[in-house]
Amino acid sequence: MRKLVEALEFCVFDLETTGLDPEAGAEPIEAGAVRVETGRVTETFQSFACPRGEIPGEVQGLTGISPADVRDAPSPPAVLGELLEFAGDSILVAHNIDFDRSFLDVYAPRPVTNEEVDTLRMARSLVGGTDHSLDHLVGRFGLDRT
Asked: Under a CB-based contact definition with an 8 Å cutoff, are residues 53 and 94 in contact?
């Protein structure tokens, strides 16, 4: 498996949002990504996005992102366009990619055609137990989350 991963180029990304459902008006407020080539992180991307609506207090508490953080940030479509440019044609990797993909489908300025890998699905298939959250997996495998 290590040889396979080292041979691939992929982009691991995550979105922070104002809610769970973009069809109900939830918006991206941050995008972060790393490009991995031959098993090493070669580039990083991070940008806040300024939503049209408010950031709920619960989301501020969970993400640590305040209205002041996003006040002068680009719009969600602009940030997701930058994210897609950063990713290029590499494989997109995310934990519960269906969630992140739902926001890309609504807010990205162009259709996303990259191949995808969902680490949540992988964890459910390969790791025992019922807790497949990133926090649990990081602890279980002794990984450095930074």
From this structure: no
